[in-house]
Amino acid sequence: MKNLILLFVSFVFSLSIYAKNESQTISVEVTGKGKPIVLIPGFTVPGDIWNPLVKELEKNYECHIITLAGFGGTEPIEFPWLPKVNESLKNYILENDLQNATIIGHSLGGTIATWLAAQDELKLSKIILIDALPASGALMIPNFDPENLIYESPYNNQQLAMDDVAFEQTATAMSKSMSLKESAQEKIKNWILESDRKTYVYGYTDYLKLDLRENLKNISIPVTIIAASQPYGEEMVKQTYKNQYANLKNYNFIIVEDSAHFIMLDKPEWFLKQMQTILSSN
């Protein structure tokens, strides 16, 4: 009997640890009432990047604002990071019965939205992808093979070993290509610096490994893709998206002039109006 009690206690304790770890994978803030919208930010970015948009949307929609583990001051989780994030978001949508939800995702958040839209169990309404690709690694790495991307690599080890000064210099350089506004560049830099370093390094490996180009064939709901024209120019952007989304049957494609990767920071008024227009369409 004593052994049985100990076994039961151990089982309950294991469940509580699992629940704790599961809940830490994503942090969610819910506001507003109406049809559900799930908003997923990009890599290193906290959910509050959506605040200006949510301020308007919450009048008519129930907004579920996501922050991913290791970013925005949240606790890191065990690796592999991205597969756990994907599954947690899928479970969150199912467990909260978010029928016909719309997902808005920026960058990595848009890639995750693509993965979610390809899942048979989820009955989503539409997805809106903001400067997001289904296979970023294939664009960035010659002879791309996900199997070749591992955590224990010289590049990753160098990133982990950087002192704070060197890492801040790296973050500053990266931020300058992601927005045309100095104030936004400062925000982006700080989000990188505030992220958990190991999540930043290994999580990016997870991101580059993910290739959803075949999964696109499973998506039948409406998709809107919004792409920034800078810094590569409109023609190159058009070709890149055409190649990456070749397996997606139908989608609405919008290129934003005079904007870099963080469109919501570079062109906030335009972005807000565009989101309202897309959400109000069938």
From TrEMBL:
Q: What domain of life is recorded for the organism?
A: Bacteria
Keyword Nucleotide-binding set for record:
no
Coiled-coil stretches are none
Record keyword Hydrolase present: yes
Where does the signal sequence lie? 1-19
Instruction: Give the classification, highest ranks.
Output: Bacteria, Pseudomonadati, Bacteroidota, Flavobacteriia, Flavobacteriales
**InterPro entries named among the record's database cross-references:** AB_hydrolase_1, AB_hydrolase_fold, AB_hydrolase_sf
Give the protein name, as stated in the record.
Answer: Pimeloyl-ACP methyl ester carboxylesterase
One family name in Pfam for this protein: Abhydrolase_1
Q: Tell me a GO cellular component.
A: membrane
* Keyword annotations: Hydrolase, Signal
Task: Please give one Gene Ontology molecular function term for this protein.
Answer: hydrolase activity
Q: Where is the AB hydrolase-1 domain?
A: 35-268
